[in-house]
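Example record

One chain of 114 residues, shown exactly as stored in the release files.
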Amino acid sequence: MSKDYITKIVDNDQLIMSKTISSIENDTEIDPELFNEIHPYTTKALRVGITGPPGAGKSTLIDGLIRIYLKNGKSVGVVAVDPTSPFTGGALLGDRVRMNQFSHNNNVFISSMG
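Predicted structure tokens for this chain:
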């Protein structure tokens, strides 16, 4: 794994992060060294899980948390996981539309997974 590739991930290069996540999702072969090289940068990461029924305010809470972390000089990654409902199609689209206000902020990365 090239040092340049790792540097791009650490520097929040959203295109590289998206491609890497897609590769992992699609079971594409990834150099195992990527995980060894990126691990030292992840030891101070805070991971928060938010769950609840539709309409409970998950997106509103996430929006508020993003604002707080940005105000404190942090970067934020949101991985929105939503099992697709055969009735509603899932809520990912709605979540992404509500969080669209952060789309031009390089310190916010949002990825949706079904």
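Notes: The two ends are 28 Å apart (CA to CA).
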